[in-house]
Queue: 2 jobs
Job 1
Amino acid sequence: MARRTVADQFVEILLAAGVRRMYGVVGDSLNPVVDAVRRHDDIQWVHVRHEEAGAFAAGAEAQLTGRPAACAGSCGPGNVHLINGLYDAHRSMAPVIALAAQVPSTEIGTSYFQETTPCLYFRECSYYCATVSRPEQMPRVAQTAIQEAIGRDGVAVVVLPGDVADQQATATYLEHPYRLEQQPTARPSDAVLEELAEMVDRARRITLFCGRGVAEAHDDVVALAARLKAPIGFALRGKDWIAYDNPYEVGMSGLLGYGACYDAMHECDLLILLGTDFPYVQFMPSEPKVVQVDVRRERLGRRSKLDLGVWGDAGETVRALLPRVAEKSDSSFLDRMLRRHGELVGRLRTYAEEVSDHRPIHPEHVASTLDRFATDDAVFTVDTGMSTVWAARLINATGRRRLLGSFVHGSMANALPQAIGAQVAYPDRQVVALCGDGGFAMTMGDFLTLLQYDLPVKVVIFNNGSLGMVALEMLVAGYPPYQTGLKNPDFAAMARAAGVQGIRIEDPADVRPGLREALTTEGPVLVDVLTDPNALSMPPKIKGEQVRGFALAMTRLVLAGEADEVVNMARSNLRNLPRP
């Protein structure tokens, strides 16, 4: 009988917890673990080109499937590369187990080649990080890591020296099975529910603002809105779960916002936050009473003033509240918000059609076309920046589509590696990565991972030759954009050189046929769309200091002899340039 190593034991514990893939780059300190993966049929090693991409891919898989996923990095630089993707997974509440290989146990503390201290630098991006220094520790450390990851929805790290991984496994009697399907619910106390019901019954104008926490409560939230005549707004991570089949929807708030959500939140007299940890205090109202419902007590009141904190699951709370509140008859506030929302969204979509023949190509037209041609269960991954803006505003939820991005951590270059994790997990599902040119260039090496595994991801690059969101941030702060320009290659030609179909779109007349061809082609495809570098995205409400900053930046550009750039920007953004 073959010797069972500590690495075998670790892999089998992962398998028992439902892990089916480990993303990483092989390396000497990882050799025992990689070989254990090779010898176990039910787990796959996905060889990415950069460990950061592996961590992003694992986080995406975990978010989509609800099961834990794993990634790994060899000692020192290999596992240091995991950090950014693990930060994103941790802040996105994705159950990810990371293996950080370590130098030989006898060399720890001697400034050995590639030696680092993983338990120090993974501390902030994980709930748990521990080193296995003896074989007897493995089952308890690995299982504790898994329990932390799946129990708290985040990252756990196991640090494992290569020589320990190759030793014979022991303490097998400590291994135990998992029940991943058991998900407890948390219901508020009757006293808190009665207090909430009294606040609801007293209020005349109520708005519901939803986040990811309403994932299993769509119908209940819509039923509550119907009873209260309440508009429903949402944060970006709530869009997938509440923006479809919803006659009370009024869009999003925040920097990416659209529609009447901002107005509904500020003109109500009771705002109920359901399962959201919306981060932008600047967009939260100060006048209405605010109730927050969250299963994580530590989040109550940390983003806004709070008149009542309700500790409980959003769905359970809504279901318990429904029979306790009286139906409202006055729908004037709801009707007014819905009219305003219809006007604003109609204007946005009309604009996307009106510019369909404009040159340079407007990114809104590209996103709108993708929305029309993509399947109803497509997974969209979006880079941080303008790509997220266009997706948030123009990619419609269907109840089956998913929209993933670095929405809490805000990292560049997340879309391509997240698309890898999504496509590996769902090989028969359409996956579309909406990449900025800056983000794609940052992790461009992992485009080869699509080729290596023949993953049919459709990569659409908004190629505007600029770090567009950074340029906008400079403008509204009063600075002329500096060092935001990018000198890009022909990305489609690069794809073809790598053996992947590449489509370059420069003429607006080619947007529809080019994207339709990409989405219907088997295998990976890269679409390089040259978009207008002057197309800007403005938040739903412009503050006075932003107007002054924008005007100051424009003045500086004119005085610097760049008046043509100002004129081009105005022509590209007549619909949304800030006005005093």
Note: The CA atoms of residues 93 and 153 lie 5 Å apart.
Job 2
Amino acid sequence: MSAEQPGKSPAAKGIGDQEHLRVLGYEDSFHRSMSLWANFALGFTYLSPLVGVYSLFALALSTGGPPSIFWIVIVGAGQLLVALVFGEVVSQYPIAGGIYPWTRRLWGKRYAWMAAWVYVWAMLVTITAVAEFGSGFLGSLIDAPVTKEVTLGLSVLFLLVAFAFNFSGTKMLGRVARIGLAAELIGVIGLGLYLLIFQRKQEFSVFFSTMGVEGDGNYAVAFLGAALAGLFLFYGFEACGDVAEEVANPARGIPRAMILTILVGGVSALFSFGGYVMAAPDLQAVVDGNDIDPIPAILEASLGTVGAKLFLVIAITAFLSCVLSLQAAASRLMFSFARDGMIPGHAWLSKVSPRTAVPVNALIVACSIPLALCLLIYAGGSLTQITAFAVIGIYVAFQAVVLAALRQRIKGWRPAGPFNLGRAGIVVNIVALAYGVFAMVLLALPGKTGVFLDDWIVLIGLAVVMGAGLLYLFIAKPHTNSHQPEGDAIAVAALLRAHPGNAAPAPAAPGKSSPTSVSD
């Protein structure tokens, strides 16, 4: 962190965090006890390359072969552009909740309501999926039988332990996130390097060999089919902005944390994925789809029984940190949504504990709905079907921000935070949007199993969530309960540039609510 006074952010001519928030129409509700390092750790453990690589390693290799590793580079570069756009937005709008307040202030209430509705459900089902995946690691560590009852019990345990840490306050959240960061770095970079250097069983040229995965078809089709190897990995950096009101100097620090999350996460994923490929004793069996869970065997062969158990401890720590970060991000989004009166029960959901300064009721919901989804899976639901729309839902929400930012730029918006891309901003914005559309098309492509539900489950899931949200939006009209500013990016930028009163503030755009002035 810089040596500025605590609570000060150079967003606009020395404006402080409280003043910046007041310009945006809010008062401080949280303790600013999260450092830049802890903020980065939160985003990194949400992104969790260990979880992502482990979950998709076999699928990526059986679909696209060893060259599927290049999707990590492609998606990492695309998401870095998205992170740069987010950085400019959060630098002007360091408000809790991320996606919702950004889309509201860049576009409007109804647009923001839909973006946040899709995003919060995507996060809730992602919490469920990570807890379910983590239960397998915990079960292996304690040698528990693989039964539905054990999976349910261990998944619930993950959710409740993460909730307890979150409930303890922002300092505890940051502390556990840093521990999770250390576990992730050991589990991905440390282990990856060890496998690459000491347990290598393949030549590096293997990453340019399809190993026959395309069959009689075109390899380009197979490679595109493996895109999920990267697309599933690179989100989570936006969580750094979800807790903006709990971070000192957020307008300057959070963009750095987002960029660092992408860069370190990408390098970590490359080492991890590459290490597993190079150390696989029978790589062809993985590529052929005959070994659907190859990593335990790779670890056992490379590390021995004791080493494999130690890795399980590291992996469980990473999974717990990932659930913790997801719960924190989801609760802050719901709090921000509720603070503006945009959802049922908003008075209850917007309450912040006077002791721990966390949105406890929103945290309860962020834990309870995944618990209910775990019960649904136990009762016979499919984890794949329940979580199918999660990734595309998150990409839809991300691109809602990117599109709204581009719309404001075309109208004349020049971001006023300390993190600013200058003239390059509009070029980055356009390319980030093009990348996002490309990614969503890849995610939405139907499968080829011949089973309608399985082939179209991603779009069906997205349609159900968006359809329900649109029905509620037009029937209940939740946006009419809120009177906070919207679509005021140009006006707020003028206010921030005019602070501290050495020039007259620019008036709000016609037809838009004015942001609160600097003085009370």
Note: The two ends are 30 Å apart (CA to CA).
